[in-house]
# Entry
Amino acid sequence: MPVSYILAKGAAMHMENFRFLSSTQIIFGRGSHHEVGPETGKYSRKVLLHYGGGSIKKSGLFDQVTASLQEAGVEYVELGGVAPNPRLSLVYKGIELCRKEGINFVLAVGGGSVIDSAKAIALGVPYQGDVWDFFSGKAEAQTSLPVGAIPTIAAAGSEASWSCVITNEDGWLKRSYNNNINRPVFAILNPELTFTLPPYQTACGAMDILAHVFERYFTNTPHVDLTDRLGEAVMKTVIKHTPVVLREPENYDARAEIMWAGTLAHNDLVGTGRIGDWATHILEHELSGMYDVAHGAGLAALFPAWMTYVYRHDVYRFAQFAVRVWDVEPDFRHPEEIALAGIARLRQFIRSIGLPVSLAELKIGREKFDELVAKCRMPNDDTLGKFVRLTRDDLRRILELAAE
Amino acid sequence: MPVSYILAKGAAMHMENFRFLSSTQIIFGRGSHHEVGPETGKYSRKVLLHYGGGSIKKSGLFDQVTASLQEAGVEYVELGGVAPNPRLSLVYKGIELCRKEGINFVLAVGGGSVIDSAKAIALGVPYQGDVWDFFSGKAEAQTSLPVGAIPTIAAAGSEASWSCVITNEDGWLKRSYNNNINRPVFAILNPELTFTLPPYQTACGAMDILAHVFERYFTNTPHVDLTDRLGEAVMKTVIKHTPVVLREPENYDARAEIMWAGTLAHNDLVGTGRIGDWATHILEHELSGMYDVAHGAGLAALFPAWMTYVYRHDVYRFAQFAVRVWDVEPDFRHPEEIALAGIARLRQFIRSIGLPVSLAELKIGREKFDELVAKCRMPNDDTLGKFVRLTRDDLRRILELAAE
# Structure
């Protein structure tokens, strides 16, 4: 297989200098969502209660959250209807609502989409211009409303992350905006809330968590032993416990391991001092923007292909991944075989948890590959990714590898 | 060997509920101490600059820190002289000085003792009563001055921890006070600042870091896979890189790994959702209070003895420790042998980095064992430790095991 990617030049000799503050108060455990009232009351007396398709009403969570708010003397205004791949139009609506109602806090109850939508609303309320400016790179946010999060799925890690991903229906552009002010002031993590999550969404969440570590794990930054091992800790936890929760959806212990792993996978602890890649995420954003597939499923189809395409760039790193994360027996004479064995085990794992390992399984054919590649944002001198700088030609080949 | 300890009753069935917020802004890397001026300026225009024996003046660090403060328009008042096992009398002096000078921020430049002394001063300034009230358990602190930290040794993890340990010369009581308001607002971690640290102190620091994980790792809380692995990540990093820095004191990469490990070992990330033990720390506090030995050296002499005494309480956990942390080959038919092999490797490691594995090596004989045991604080129904609840009789036996 010909590889046309450009090797990183002027690579760092040491761990990168970094700043790190995960400023989100974590409130973890059984029954913890009952603490939402007093916790929110520290910041606000009137909040926007933001949620998705209404499953929180059926489950009773909505009533429990609002009861806790009322008991703490916190008024709320509802805004539901957040869809997967959350949309700008609803963000605009939320901003307007907050302004009209004099709301100064956004409480997100739901999945990563709900939390991201809440973050975007919180960014927009105090901003004079169009909130899309932040996502299009036209402006940097100086302030935002505080956000609180009660995730109902272990996946995106948005509850403690600096990232926010919104889809603009005008052109179906899916864009992210990363800023430390996006971090929620608190995240209430109750593993029980994920008991009713169907197997497919549970698996998609697990894949999303793994992918957040992958993006950071595959780096050219040398001398990052500790963060390698922290990332491996998160990956091994997800790999061990995902099959358990698929078998036993109400296994608190396994749900708890995955939930805490999901938060730590994306609050940037495992990225401290290292430069991540993020090509696969950006490519997947285009994919799920065009096809509206679940983010985790798109990542499942793309990541093994990306790995297969780039592993020669650092066979030793991929061999380490195979040995430490996937328990492949080391063979120092044949590191390439070991590296490939690791990628093969990832593929087997993805299949075993019921996710697609190809785009064909997602009913995505080759006919739109050119459009997808043409549309893809290429932030670094018309290349994508930092571990390996991919050209559009490389992206096309990765899609080919992912096709079937 | 007879074991008289009381087994834990009513042990938890699941991971513990927890709250976690490591609120310290981490500023990590080469040259990062030059950021102290602007960072401090966010909080204060007049600070107490707190340090130890004056080595920071010889090294030039003092001049660089004060230059950065001056450039940022931050005035400072000096208070040096913090000794290892920092003393209450100097804390009182610092409190008085802050009040007299109208100081509202304490900047600690030095080792864990300096940072702890700074935390105690920060607690005392806004408090009407005697600051020792917090350490003696008479009062809970409601507020404190903000503290900034520039550690010059990777060890205590005080730069981002909630703990503070002070020695009261009146009775030579060494006591700790844990409260989230003790966490510094920022920690500037520059591994270069640890280049000049002598081998013995470097090794003591490594032992202290390991001990902070040990205290959390040995727990009765079940279903703590992720935090087990995070702790193992920290331990393996220290075990790998300590021999490197002893050989090459100016190896930036290895110093950096150990420094970040030191912070993460004690900001309580690796303790989330689990109940730690802490018997060995409390016993060592009495020891170093009485004998003025280095904390890390005391821990080195005591921990293998504690492990040998208690491993039967949970052979599987000690076997896991042996296999995952010390690379002992698993042997499922003989878990006890595996557990003991892990403890033996810890002992070998301690010896290999030049630390004592017995109290005799610290010139501490049996003659004061009774006094030590009698003096020891026994917080839980006259027992010490939560993994295993040790009686005074157990402590005596552990000291015997540590004696030679």
Q: What stands out?
A: The first strand of chain A starts at residue 18 and ends at 20. Residues 88 and 170 of chain A are 9 Å apart (CA to CA).
